[in-house]
Amino acid sequence: MSTTSIAYANTARTLTAVSQRRATGELTLTNDEHQWRLHFFHGRLVYATGSLHRMRRWYRAVKHSCPDFNMSHAPSNEPWEYQLLSQSVTQNQLSVLQAQAVIKMSLEEVLFSWVSNPTLSSEWSSIQKFSLGSNSALSLLLSSAEIERVLRQAQELWRHWKELELEALNPYKSPILKHSLPMDAVGTLSFPGRLIPILDGRYTLWDVACLAQRPVTTVTRFLLPWVQQGAIALEEVSDLPNPVQPHQATAPSTVQPVRPLIACVDDSPTVGEFLSAVLEPAGYRVIKIQDPLSGIAMLCEDKPDLIFMDLIMPDANGYDLCNFLRKTPAFQNTPIVILTSQSSIMDRARAKLVGATAFMSKPPDPQAMLNLVRNYLHPAMVIPVTCKCWQEHEA
Fold first, then answer.
1. Is this prediction's pTM over 0.85?
2. How many CB atoms lie within 10 A of CB 359?
3. What are the residue ranges in the chain where pLDDT is below 50?
4. Could you report the per-residue pLDDT of 169-184, keeping only the tens digit for each?
5. Domain, as residue range, for 224
6. In-domain check, residue 269
7. Strand boundaries in the chain, DSSP class E
8. Among the three residues 104, 130, 163, which one is the final residue of a domain in this structure?
């Protein structure tokens, strides 16, 4: 029996035992780096959480199954994801099927990690009292048969992952398109340009699959040739911020959140004033740098969250400045948007080669500029990505 089969059999046996005992508590799965928790109530699954990218998993599941869901405040009881889903069903904001779809998608990812890692150790902790919030919450719990179906899906996903020889890759890592490739390398790779905006270190392979509305195996297999040729690097990425704030017993803090900082590197004062007029009322801070050479020190000191940059300036070249910033560790993942009146295909191609994240023509449309800024500074999985290039890798 293969290692995978043994891991699957052990997982199925453990979950069956919990269901048969009608146990209430937590099944904790642990390895050297991460911990996963499966919460049960009388043998039925409540929710599955994990220390690795808990928030990203929540974002994916919600955006996939109920994209219009308003995530406001969550109860303080754990797992808060389930409590929030239950509360939303009670208030007719979500259907039972939508809430269960979120639970099943989260469970499948956790079980995928379990069956793909036979070294995970498991430990059961009983809980005498478990608050479900309301009787209607019972309708969301997954039965043993439903858990078994999700486990089979996770096993099938891992089997396909192995068949495609993806075992060395980690779906929790972020694919990043390298900016230092020579022109001839980029040309031979023929990489679809529409995918470039999502390969900038903000999304994991799981995230990209959710955005593309394709299985993670399909997406990863499609990207594999570029990974093997060094055009794409897979790097660790942090979790997303918590989209909901549990209710606190104490008075709320009076400290105001820091507003994102945007830099405008342009020798024209008019452009800087235009950006300020558009972005500051929307909640952003703007610093204006008219002399790019002396302004580098300001960029390094303030470390803006996003940079708008002109291409043609006195004593400086936007291409060279962008390339310089990309070679500086502090700005390797900072969105850099070229804002210029020179918007030919060659200008755009050259801007991409030196590491530009996006390109906007002057004069920019205010709403388009705001949408672009919000997309890069608030990456909450809101932009669906469809591409015919995935289809040949579905099989």
1. no
2. 17
3. 182-188, 246-257, 379-387
4. 999 999 987 755 544 4
5. 174-240+381-393
6. yes
7. 25-30, 35-41, 44-50, 121-126, 174-177, 232-235, 261-265, 285-289, 306-309, 312-313, 316-317, 336-340, 358-361
8. 163
